[in-house]
Structure formats: structure tokens, C-alpha cells
Amino acid sequence: MKDMNSLQNIDWDSLTFSLTPTRSMYMATCNAGEEWDPGKLVPFGDISFSPAAGVLNYGQGVFEGMKAFRTVKDRIVLFRPEKNAVRAAGSAQRVCIPPVPTEMFLDAVKSVVKDNADYIPPFGKGSLYIRPVIWGSGPILGVAPAPSYMFLVYVSPVGPYFKSGVKSLHLKITNQYHRAAPKGTGGHKIVGNYAVSLYPQQLAKKSGFDEAIYLNAADERFIEEVGSANIFILKDDVLTTPSLDGSILPGVTRASVLKIAREKLNLQIRQRNVSVHELLNADEVFCTGTAVVVTPVGMITTNLHSQTINNNEMGPITTQLREMLLGIQQETHEDPFGWICPLDE
């Protein structure tokens, strides 16, 4: 394969998790009650909306987060893209957006990645972040579904999500704010879910923490998520994560870690309510997500005190899970589950 990276003057070693404009993006449209029109690649750039667009006024929009990798085998791969296609369709249905068919979703993602292949960092230097979005783009004044919709996919080369890389995180448990309500939209990747996390995240970072941990809204007895990731605890070789009760996002990385832990590390798996007490007394704690991969948590602060986890270091199980997941994605390890989707170049 030719060295596509030489086409871009990018300092791969200084990449952060931020936007770098690329060559092109995919765009398709749909009127309410009709099928999606065939989409196409267009130059990356600004788009035009009516001030009355459904996504701008009522938050009628969903998105996904995915990555493309340049692997040790010198090829480009996606990681479980069909899972994102299915989740996007479920999120869209929840907010009355016409779901994008799975085949169309996957074709769109692949076409954008191929057209921007020279923006994919070299092996071990980062990844190409893929952002599919589906918006209510048509104008609507009353509270109702928009009359028309837009499906768009853009990409950006990225480095680590946290500036500290794989250094253990310091998280703050917040009981001042909730991320999602019971029977709400927390289990879907809807734009408004993330807007409500911005202020608590800002407060946490101003106080020196990396992120906030949210409690369940019903009685604040159990942990739910970090603002941008699912959370796991390990205690006595039992790996536990909050169950998917409708307010927790069914993360693709979450599901992948559970399968690796069960089938490759032979750990006992539990999906259930997790109390703050259990969190603070765990042997290991880590976060998972497309952006954060598997990132250890080394300290947790409540309103009363701070608790160090595993001497503020990455634990052995967290290390194994991170290495195995990244190994599959980067093809340094065997892919026993058929998760890798290579792109023909």
C-alpha cells in the first residue's frame, strides 16, 4: 500500500482529540414519510440550515462515534461498524427521525474513510474519528418532528481523548446534576444528552478533576456513567458494570470489553446496580468508550473525601483489557470475534 500519510503535513505526534478539517464528507437528505435519497461525497465545510430547523430549536438530532485505524498489517480497518449503524437507527426512532438503513450507513462511513485515507494517522499514532450525524434539518415552528432530515458523516484525525493519555483519571461524583432521567433518552445517543453534561464537566475540570461521575436520578444510590463513557469496577475477579436500564448508553466498547473479559480472561461478569460504596472499594475501576478506549480511574472524590484506587495505577485486568482491545483494533492481536472490518483500497 502506498504511503498515503505523506500527502498531509500533519504532526502526528502532537495530535489531540480535536477537529482537523479533512477533504470531504458524506451528505444525504430525506423528507418525512419518504425514503432517504442517495447520498454523495461533498467537500468538507459549513452547511446551511433554516433558523427554524428541528435540530436547532428542539434538539431533534442523533450522532455516533466510530474510529478507523491504520494497522500493523498496513491496512485500514473499522471496528464493529454495524453496531453503530443499529444503535443510530434506534436513537433516530426515539426522536422521530427516519432511521438510516444499515447498508446505507455502512456505505457512507466507508466512502468517507476511503476518500480521506491520507488523514488516517500512521500505526500507533492515533486514529481517524468518524462522526455520523442525523438531524431534523427542515423548519418547524411548533413542537413536532421536522419535515425533512439530513444524514452527514465527517471525519477527523485524532490523538488521545484525555491529555494525560493513559494516566489514571481523577473523577468527581456529582449529586448536583443528573445526566439522564428514568424512561428518558439516556440510553440513546441523542444530542441533548451531551449538552446537559457540559456544565458539570466544566465545573469538574475547573476543580482539577478529569470528569464527573453521575448518579441515578431516581434516588442517587447508584452510579450510572461518566459524562463521556461507561464505567466498570473489578472486585475479587468479578467485573461489574451498571446494567442497561434505559438511562445508560449501550456502548460498543462496553459490549466488547464484556465479551473479552468473559471469553478471554474468564472473569465473572455482572450487569447490575453499582453503589457508591462498591465503587470506592473496588480493586480496579476503568472507563470505556470509542474515544477513551479503556482508561483507568486512579482516584474518586465524593463530597466528603477522596479514595485512591489501586495506588493510582492501571490495574492488571484493566491493562489486559486495554491491550487486547487495542490489539484487535490495530491487528497486533488475533481477532477471534470477527469484529474487524477491513477497507479495500
Inertia-based shape: globular
Mean pLDDT: 94
Could you give a short account of the major beta sheet? 9 strands, mixed
DSSP strand tally: 17
Blueprint of the fold:
Layout: E1 24-31, E2 40-43, H1 54-58, E3 61-63, E4 66-70, E5 76-79, H2 81-94, H3 102-115, E6 127-136, E7 148-158, E8 169-174, H4 191-206, E9 211-215, E10 223-226, E11 230-235, E12 238-241, H5 252-263, E13 268-271, H6 276-280, E14 284-289, E15 293-301, E16 306-308, H7 316-330, E17 340-342
Parallel strand pairs: 8-9, 8-15, 12-13
Antiparallel strand pairs: 1-2, 1-7, 3-6, 4-5, 4-6, 5-17, 6-7, 9-10, 11-12, 11-14, 14-15, 15-16
Helix pairs in contact: 2-3
Task: Describe what you observe in this structure.
The chain has 345 residues and is an alpha+beta fold. The protein folds into two domains: 4-158, Aminotransferase class 4, branched-chain amino acid transferase, N-terminal domain (D-amino Acid Aminotransferase, Chain A, domain 1), CATH 3.30.470; 169-330, D-amino Acid Aminotransferase, Chain A, domain 2. 23% of the residues lie in helices and 28% in strands. The protein is built from seven helices and 17 strands. Strands 8, 9, 10, 11, 12, 13, 14, 15 and 16 form a nine-stranded mixed beta sheet that branches. Helix 2 packs across helix 3. The N and C termini lie close together (8 Å).
